[in-house]
Amino acid sequence: MQARLSTKGQLVIPKAIRNELGLEPGDELLVELTGRQIVIEPLTRSPIEALHGKYAQGDAPSALDALEEEHRREVTRDGLRL
Questions:
Q1: Nearby residues of 61 by Cβ (< 8 Å), 6 or more positions away
Q2: Distance separating alpha carbons of residues 62 and 51, to the nearest angstrom
Q3: So where are the chain's domains?
């Protein structure tokens, strides 16, 4: 595929390639020069980073909220002080 460099040195990766690689705005890429070739690779994301923001929380409590509430109940049940 052909792409054009902007006057600011920016390159738009064609949509078909972005879709194939699952690239999204804000993803980081590794850019290397090998001889006279420019090699661009997506940096791998951790599974946690890949899920960040994927699921809307809405009014549902977060997993952390649920764990904190469970801890409060255990502490109260066991007669401990926070």
A1: 69
A2: 14
A3: 15-77
Q: Would the pTM of this model clear 0.85, i.e. be above it?
A: no
Q: Tokens 């109940």, residue?
A: 73
Q: Residue 52 has what pLDDT?
A: 65
Q: Find out whether 27 and 16 touch, Cβ atoms under 8 Å.
A: no
Residue 13, number of CB atoms within 10 A of its CB: 14
Please report the DSSP string for 23-79 in residue order. --TT--EEEEEETTEEEEEEPP--HHHHHTTTS--TTSPPHHHHHHHHHHHHHHHTT
The CATH code for residues 15-77 is 2.10.260
pLDDT for 28-80, tens place per residue?
Answer: 899 999 999 999 999 876 667 666 666 666 656 677 888 888 888 888 877 76
pLDDT of amino acid 34: 94
